[in-house]
Amino acid sequence: MYRPKTTIEQWRILQAVVDYGGYAQAAQKLNKSQSSLNHAVAKLQSMLAVQLLEVIGRKAVLTEAGEVMLRRSRYLTQNVEDLESLAININQDWEPEIKLVVDLAFPRELLYPALREFLPQSRGSRLQVIDHVLTGTEEAINQHKADLVINMHVPKGFLGEPIATVEFLLVCHPEHVLASMPQPIDSNALAQHLQIVIKDSSLSPDEKSGWLKSENRWTVSQFDTAIDLLLQKLGFCWIPQHKVKALIDEGKLVCLPVQGSQFKQMTAFLICPTPDNKGPGTQLLETLILHHRQIDLPSSLYND
């Protein structure tokens, strides 16, 4: 029988050193001594006969081999966590806590009817509703950081149920110079002005979507802050329609006609990152959210 040379704890320590940017930071986060972390990683490298980290200045940096091994190790540690979580769900009738990650762009009012129905049936389960955006939401799926996730697309390797359509509008203040330019506005002219963008909540953001041509960009963490800046006649921004419709109707903000598109539409999906470990509380919440979904589905596939 094969006997592993390494331990799960050693791989978790390596991940922490990389994720937190060094031994000192990881030691603080893990509440361990820095020397114990150094020893664990050194022993890991010795047992494998592979150099995983090299210290450049004060920072521990992955070698090429280390990048490959670290990536594979995350699957290993996640599988162990999933296995232990499954055992907990098997040994108890109802999970004590349920984590629901929701993309910032998703209209919260579409979620509230399901939450109202969930409360009297929740058996005291604590519900965490956590806001994420862009890669941060996808990260919650890929790293199994939540029981349920509402995201604007389904990452590779997962399945999701469509629950709503989210429409985005390009808007600015009616007194902003862009609002008085000949329309439709050329995208190159648009790029000369301040763009307000929403900060990616991931620890490793990946700007792989969206119009980001403006060199002059201000980053905020919430759509509400972006709207406040727009009302101060600062910049332009893509904002979910449900957040600015009233302001547009009141004439406080205007849509910007742009060559190519002034409008984009995305579908929100409900995703369970670990369907095999789904507890009864998570199953109930998922069912209620799907019951209240606001999207047209083919009648041939879904007959209520």
TrEMBL record:
<dbReference type="InterPro" id="IPR000847">
    <property type="entry name" value="LysR_HTH_N"/>
</dbReference>
<keyword id="KW-0805">Transcription regulation</keyword>
<dbReference type="Pfam" id="PF00126">
    <property type="entry name" value="HTH_1"/>
</dbReference>
<dbReference type="GO" id="GO:0000976">
    <property type="term" value="F:transcription cis-regulatory region binding"/>
</dbReference>
<dbReference type="GO" id="GO:0003700">
    <property type="term" value="F:DNA-binding transcription factor activity"/>
</dbReference>
<dbReference type="InterPro" id="IPR036388">
    <property type="entry name" value="WH-like_DNA-bd_sf"/>
</dbReference>
<feature type="domain" description="HTH lysR-type">
    <location>
        <begin position="6"/>
        <end position="63"/>
    </location>
</feature>
<comment type="similarity">
    <text>Belongs to the LysR transcriptional regulatory family.</text>
</comment>
<dbReference type="InterPro" id="IPR036390">
    <property type="entry name" value="WH_DNA-bd_sf"/>
</dbReference>
<dbReference type="Pfam" id="PF03466">
    <property type="entry name" value="LysR_substrate"/>
</dbReference>
<protein>
    <submittedName>
        <fullName>LysR family transcriptional regulator</fullName>
    </submittedName>
</protein>
<keyword id="KW-0238">DNA-binding</keyword>
<keyword id="KW-0804">Transcription</keyword>
<dbReference type="InterPro" id="IPR005119">
    <property type="entry name" value="LysR_subst-bd"/>
</dbReference>
